[in-house]
Amino acid sequence: xxxxxxxxxxxxxxxxxxxxxxxxxxxxxxxxxxxxxxxxxxxxxxxxxxxxxxxxxxxxxxxxxxxxxxxxxxxxxxxxxxxxxxxxxxxxxxxxxxxxxxxxxxxxxxx
Length: 111
Hints:
This protein is α/β, with parallel strands linked by helices. It is 39% helix and 10% strand.
C-alpha cells in the first residue's frame, strides 16, 4: 500500500491510471478478518486501518480489480466476504487482466 501511495505522490494522481489486480492469496487484502473461516484463504487483512488506506487510494483514482477464478477456488463471496467490491471490480481472470493491460501499454510492477 505504501508503494502505491508513494507512486501516486511522485507522479500525481492525474498523471497515472493505476490499477491493482488481486488474485489468489492476494485477495486476502480485501477479505474481512472475521470471514476467513468461511473461505479457503488463511486470513483476512481488511481491518479498519486497511480499509481506510484502501478508501484513500480509491479516492485518488486507484482501481482494485479482483479475479473471479479466485472467488471459485478460494470459496469467496465478494458480496459478503470482501471490503468494497462491486461487479465492476471483477475480472474473469487476474492473469488475463494483467496480460490485457500490458497489451494496452500498462506496466506490471510487483515490488
